[in-house]
Amino acid sequence: MNSSNAILRERLRTQLIENAAEINHLHRRLHEASQQPDQSDAHADAHFKASEEFHLNYSRLCLPGGPYHDFYSRLRAGDSEMMEVALCFLEVRPYFFRSGYLWKALLQKCRHSPKSPEQAERFRVLFERYAAWKEESALAEKRGYAILLELRPITRRFHGLFPVRIRHVRYDGVVTVGDLYSILCRALKIEPLVEPQRSSGKVRAPRRLIPKSGEDHMAFRREYSQWYSSPWPPQDVWATLVANLIEAYGVDPSFEFAPSVRLPHRPSAKST
Questions:
Q1: Which of 37, 43, 203, 249 is 20 to 30 Å from 262 by CA-CA measure?
Q2: Are the C-beta atoms of 66 and 59 separated by less than 8 Å?
């Protein structure tokens, strides 16, 4: 690879990281505007402006040098410049709104598009790593689902209790109460406490997720939205988890839970 190609590649990779940060900033502003309880004209105008700014800039920022109205057609035609943009995106794998969908689309497009020998080798290495990761992810998903089923007495309580959806793969490797606490905190996008058992948190009650017959649906949706977006201090997560563990498994309330306490997995069919 000559020096000019190396400089171009470094510039593209840097721009991808900077652009992702800008997209995330714009998306965060849009999300904050949509979450404001104020229903005034000023709030509606602020939300419209945030939405407009996000959508106007997204196509410019998601790929360096964009927006490209003919990106995929140029890629299929063997345009080396577009292939370089696509490969750098696949290698950097920037994180922003819908970046995962774009990454998978580019992977498939690059797979069937003409490449230089150097680009073909880079794609081969990248694709082999992706295939290995995908295989391991499938195994982790399977292991996580098995653990989820074993912990069903407690995990079934999460629905309507914590405003999150936890993928099966997240349960892979969960053994202790601390493991379960950590994945709940990550799902809620908060930092878990190192010694949560020393904190004083509030035990929260579950939320009804389906409106009653004849209930005002608009009022129900507002209440649900407030519940879903309400902040969860890490001490509340711990207190609520422990309270539900005690109830789900019939543990003596005087028992002092610590993160190192092993969860009571159910015996497998083979051991019964």
A1: 203
A2: yes
